[in-house]
């Protein structure tokens, strides 16, 4: 069995003004969404993958809320080379963790007194390809001795 456990590693919800922030705001808040994935090898075949999802709602200087969930999972990953392992940790595993993080974030925001926010579907394969392309561009620039400003 690939997945051994799914758990919340860390969670935080801040709402400096509580629901009053929405009442006092002149404008609709700007929603910020940030995703990050990290993997740790705990044993030869056992990997912990942590998907961090951060959602913020701000209007000007007013922060409505800041919500962060580190959704983790333990996965048994065998027989993969470096690139395959990287792809599984950066794409397949986060895809399995995202529904849990999505539910926790939604619950926290609602319990904070705000309208629900649902983290949209994420294409982790595309994010991985983008990260690889950026890394290759940086490596190429470093090898060419070219400074990119």
How would you describe the overall organization of this protein?
This protein is of the alpha+beta class. The chain is built from 3 helices and 4 strands. Strand 2 (30-43) and strand 3 form a beta hairpin. Helix 2 crosses helix 3 (124-144).
Characterize this entry briefly.
With 149 residues, this protein is α+β, with helices and mostly antiparallel strands. The protein is built from three helices and four strands, in the order βαβββαα. The chain has helices spanning 20-24, 82-111, 124-144, and strands at 3-14, 30-43, 46-59, 62-76.
For the sheet with most strands, the description reads:
4 strands, antiparallel
- In which order are the strands of the major sheet placed? 1-4-3-2
Helix content class: 25-40%
Counted beta strands: 4
Average pLDDT taken over every residue:
87
Give the SSE string.
Answer: EHEEEHH
Distance between the termini: 47 Å
Strand content: 35-45%
Structural class, from helix and strand content?
A: alpha+beta
Topology:
Elements: E1 3-14, H1 20-24, E2 30-43, E3 46-59, E4 62-76, H2 82-111, H3 124-144
Antiparallel strand pairs: 1-4, 2-3, 3-4
Provide tags for this entry.
149 residues, 38% helix, four-stranded antiparallel beta sheet, alpha+beta, single chain
